[in-house]
Amino acid sequence: MGRVYRWVFGAALLIVNSANASDLISERFCADPSVHKFNNVYYVYATNDQDNSGEYWDSTDWRLFKSNDLTSWQDVGSFLNASVFTWADTNAKAWAPAAYARNGKYYFYAPVGGKQIGVAVSDSPEGPFVDPIGKALVESPRDANAGDEPIDPAIFIDADGQAYMYFGTRVPKVVKLGKDMLTTEGQILEVVINGFPESDKKKKYGEAPYLHEHNGIYYFSFSTGWPGQIVYATGDSPLGPFQYQGVIIDYLDISTNHHAILQDGDKSYIFYHDNAKQGGGDHKRSILYLPLTYSPSGEIYRVK
Ligand code: FUB
C-alpha cells in the first residue's frame, strides 16, 4: 500500500450512480450496519431499533441478518446482549457495532453507552460471543485521548497485517490493535481530515467512521453529523492524514446516518440506514444497500 497519489478533483464533479436502493434487508427496524462476507455468506450486524423505546436509541442487544445472495435475507435474531459486558452499566445501550474475522475467530466490537467500547469473540459468525478480556477495550476518560464519546467502532486490517480501530463522535480517533485483536497498541490518535470546503460549514466530522482500501488508496468515510451526509476523504496511509473528496450519500430525512462498505470480488456495495420502512423515523431505522462504484481515477460516485 502507501501508493503516492496526487489528486485534484474537479470542483464540479458530481457523478451520480442512479441505481435504486435495495429492498430493506429486514422488516424489523434496524440500523448501523456492519457488513461482511464470511465463508461465502453475507452477514449484517446491526443495532436493534425494533425494540427501542422509539424516543431514543436505547435497545440493549444487537441483531444479525444473513444472506447467500444479498437479495434474500434471513433474520438470525438477537445474537448478543450488552449484558455480555459485565463491566458495563446494566442499562447500557447497544449502539453501532463492528464485526471482523481473523485468526479463525470472529470479533465483535461494540459501544455500550457512550463511554466504552467492548470486544467479544466467537468461533462462529453467529456466536455465541463471549467477552475474553473482562473490561472495556477503550474507555473514556480512562484512556488518554479516547475523547468524550468513544462510540461507532470500525475495524480495518491492512495488507501488512496491522489492525486499526476507528471510532469517535465529533472528533475521529484511531488506535492500532494487537494481532490478538483484543488489545490496543500505542496511543489513541486523532484522525486528521484536511480540505473541508470553506463554503459549507456543515462539512465536518460527525460520527460513523469507516476505513477501506481500494487500488492502493485509503478511503476514510464518515457521517457529517445530525443530520449527516456520508462523505469521504482519501489518504496514503490508514493513519491519514486524509484529504476531503466529496459526498457519497446526501442528507436523508433522518437524524443520523451510518454506513459500511462491502467489497465483494470486483463489486462494492454501501450499506446504510434510512427511515424507509413505514412507521420509520429517527429511532426506527431500516437498513438498505446500493452498489458503490469508482471513476477510473478513484473518485467514489455519489450514490444517493
Ligand atoms: O444507533 C445509535 C447511534 O446512532 C450510532 O452509534 C450512531 O452511529 C448513530 O447511527
Automatic annotation (TrEMBL):
Keywords: Carbohydrate metabolism, Glycosidase, Hydrolase, Polysaccharide degradation, Signal, Xylan degradation. CDD domains: GH43_AXH_like. Gene3D superfamilies: Glycosyl hydrolase domain, family 43 (2.115.10.20). SUPFAM superfamilies: Arabinanase/levansucrase/invertase. Residues 1-21 form the signal peptide. Belongs to the glycosyl hydrolase 43 family. Pfam families: Glyco_hydro_43. This is Family 43 glycosylhydrolase.
